Amino acid sequence: MSDEGPSDVELMRRLASGDERALQSLYDRYASAVMGLALKILGEREPADDVVQETFWRAWSRADTYQAERGAALSWLFGIAHHLSIDLTRRRASDRYGTNPLKSNPEDQKDVEEAAWAAVRRRQVQAALSELAPDQRQVLELAYFGGLTRREIAETTGTPLGTVHTRARLGLRNLRAALLAKDFEFE
Amino acid sequence: MDENIEDMLPLYALGALSDEERARVERHVEANPKAKEELEELLEGAGALAYAAPAVAPSLQSRQALMQRIRAEGKRAPDKPQTPRWKIGVLSGALLGRGVAAISLVVAVVSLGTVLATRNELGDLRADNVELLRQLQDHQQVLRLFSQPNLISVEVAGTEEEPQAHGRLFAGLDGHTGVLLVEGLSPLQAGSTYQAWLIRGGTPSPAGLFQASADGLGTLSVEAADILGRYDALAVSVEPEFGSLLPTGPIVLLGAISG
């Protein structure tokens, strides 16, 4: 992470005490990463913007529940944003999967150091994903980015539920092993 | 209901269970330390997936709306279930807090009105700036590439979808980045993009998005997960606006990198 400015832990501590500037700093540091995840799941800027806003609102209002020993601030924010995005995806029942649940966008980097760090991690995860068997990767993507339930994945891919379970387990295990081999820092 | 609940752990980690199934898994994990340990490992893998998403700047309005909401709703929210504000936001855009008084609303609206035009212009300028910077970075990368001793040049040819299209990928053989220059591509309709793919062992990996200009030219800084020389081929497909993680549209360009 950046050598300059307060650490994530310090920002979260200040956030819990109601320091608005800490929230602004946290937003500037991670809003683009959170937006990227929300946009990948939702595929539209407007709801993704709203997810970003709601994610940081929850970070602000529940900062005292953050536990540094359980993960980095960005992982915590990702968890909130993923939950919100999937929830919204499932509410949009008529436009769920098939239009485009797996989306990305050209980068608009603000903080060079943070962006460089994010690029390294993205490269590691994408490389690890590319090493997975396509059917395992498909299940991970449909679940995590597509917001499909296990039964919907089985229907979409035309595979038995048990096969979906197996592919998900193998996919996550192999992904983790591939990331460990690349010295990925789990947070 | 006779399913082995352990089978659901990876789907729990991926968020692919119903509320009832989630509750069952959580009860099971609470009572089984070994299952909890396995779930934590699965959650690590699932959590890493979030890092695969490219960063994208949220709108300027999003930041401002967040700050307005915090000022309107007070220092800290009480521990009660929050109304998902984004559900409203989808319809109405920037939000004002529930507790805001009418007079504050008027002041806020007036203030917003005075800055809105400026902010929109700033947003447009910022978008233009981002695009210009992207082009500049592409050009700088071309210059850097041509100074490398191990430069490779890969020819990509149009498929039957775009037979008139052709281009070249310039890259350092031992590097992760390169530049793809293409001509003869058809400009796409709104809502679509060209997406490059690096293929190895039959598996495509996303390598970047680009648009073709009105005269059919396209450039892309290719960012590869692995060393470029280790891939078998480069392809370009037509994808929805924000791209895909696997090709979903027609392949319009293809070229062998090695072998």
Produce a short descriptive summary.
The complex is a heterodimer of chains A (187) and B (259). With 187 residues, chain A is an all-alpha fold.
List keywords for this structure.
heterodimer, A: 187 residues, 0% strand, globular, B: 259 residues, alpha+beta, eight-stranded antiparallel sheet, 6 helices, 8 strands
Work out the number of β strands of chain B.
8
Note the main sheet of chain B: 8 strands, antiparallel
- Overall geometry of chain A comes to globular
* Low confidence ranges of chain A: 94-111
Estimated helix fraction of chain B: 25-40%
- Terminal-residue CA separation of chain B: 52 Å
- Poorly predicted runs of chain B: 77-117
- Oligomer type: heterodimer
Instruction: Indicate the radius of gyration of chain B in whole angstroms.
Output: 25 Å
Estimated structural class of chain B:
alpha+beta
Give the overall shape of chain B, derived from the CA principal axes.
extended
Number of strands of chain A: 0
- SSE ordering of chain A: HHHHHHHH
First CA to last CA of chain A: what distance?
Answer: 12 Å
Mean pLDDT of chain B: 74
**Content of β-strand of chain A:** under 5%
Number of helices of chain A: 8
Describe the structure.
The complex is a heterodimer of chains A (about 190) and B (about 260). By secondary structure, chain A is mostly helical. Helices cover about 70% and strands about 0% of the residues of chain A. Chain A contains 8 helices and no strands. The radius of gyration of chain A is 17 Å and the shape is globular. Chain B is built from 6 helices and 8 strands. Chain B has an 8-stranded antiparallel sheet with strand order 5-4-7-8-1-2-3-6, with helices on one face. Chain B starts with 8 loop residues before the first helix and ends with a strand. At the A-B interface, helix 2, helix 3, helix 4, helix 5 and helix 6 of A face helix 1, helix 3, helix 4, helix 5 and strand 5 of B.
